[in-house]
Amino acid sequence: xxxxxxxxxxxxxxxxxxxxxxxxxxxxxxxxxxxxxxxxxxxxxxxxxxxxxxxxxxxxxxxxxxxxxxxxxxxxxxxxxxxxxxxxxxx
Length: 91
Known about the structure:
CATH superfamily of the largest domain: IHF-like DNA-binding proteins
Radius of gyration: 19 Å
Strand order of the largest sheet: 1-2-5
CATH architecture of the largest domain: Irregular
Largest sheet: 3 strands, antiparallel
Helix content: 40-55%
Distance between the termini: 20 Å
Strand content: 25-35%
CATH topology of the largest domain: HU Protein, Chain A
Number of helices: 3
Number of strands: 5
Order of helices and strands: HHEEEEEH
C-alpha cells in the first residue's frame, strides 16, 4: 500500500472527501516525521514503534581501489513491529 492508496482507503472508510483524507494522512506523517527529528519515540499500540537509532562511524574500504576510508556515523529511523501486528501477519 502506498500513500495514495492509504488516502483512498481512509476516504472510503470514513466517508470523507479525498482532499480531507489527504490532509489527514499528510498531517499524521508530518507530525511523525517531526517527532523523529526531535528524537522522540513514536508508539502506535498494536502496530509498532518508531525511533531514531544512531550508528557509529567506522573505517571501511573503497571496493574499487581497496583504500581505507572513514565512514561517518549516521542516524536512521527504525521500526519495531508490535506483538498484535506480528501475530496477525503470522496467522
